[in-house]
Specification:
By secondary structure, the protein is α/β, with parallel strands linked by helices. The protein has helices at about 20-30, 70-80, 95-105, 115-125, 135-140, 145-150, 155-165, 170-180, 185-195, 200-220; strands spanning about 10-15, 35, 55-60, 85-90, 105-110. The chain folds into 2 domains: about 5-140, Response regulator (Rossmann fold, 3-Layer(aba) Sandwich), CATH 3.40.50.2300; about 145-220, Winged helix-like DNA-binding domain superfamily/Winged helix DNA-binding domain (Arc Repressor Mutant, subunit A). The chain is built from 10 helices and 5 strands. The protein has a 5-stranded parallel sheet, sandwiched between helices. Strand 4 (about 85-90), helix 3 (about 95-105) and strand 5 form a beta-alpha-beta unit. Helix 2 (about 70-80) runs parallel beside helix 3.
Length: about 220
Amino acid sequence: MSDDEGVAPVVVFPICTSPLLRLGLEKILADVGFAVHREMIDDHTGLPEVPAGAPVLFIIDGNSFAEGVVDLIRKAKAHIPKAKIVLLADHFDSALVSVAWKAGADGFCLSTYPHDVLVTSFELVMLGEAILPSDIVLTIATGREEMLDLQRGKLSNREAEILGFLKEGAPNKVIARNLNLSEATVKVHIKAILKKAGVRNRTQAALWARRYAAVNLEAS
């Protein structure tokens, strides 16, 4: 993948809000066939044009864009359809991985990986391989996904109602008005939903609901 072998270097666009992350990627990818874009890119806009046919890798910081990473993946893919996309984060929820994969992501790498593992993962993605964290692979391989969700705490009727609004992207104020509740009460219910669903934020809860809510409600 290096210039010495007569192959154009992979142009890497880190999309993140952390200058340290971009500098870190530049350091670990130096001299291994990747050319990291030097300007800060904090969304899908402002991406410079690349030579036709040049290999491109988007590395998206999932920690910086937890609320809109799927949309960001779609837009990056639309900008350069043949580009490869890797999502880098501290943790991955299986529901998010599924949706991000369908949006065009090619790999999911934990930010805790050693440097050499990250480099190898990026190289494999550029070769067309799919990269997934081991816990996600084990969950899929053993068919434990539905079982794990059924073992999570069951939602109350009120929580199920609120989860329905979360699926539609409704803000707390709208949920409170529709259910004749205070916004503080809605926040308490949402916190309980996140804990029971085993997710970190309302966006992940909505994704989880679309795949699993029906299963959990039928089992309640």
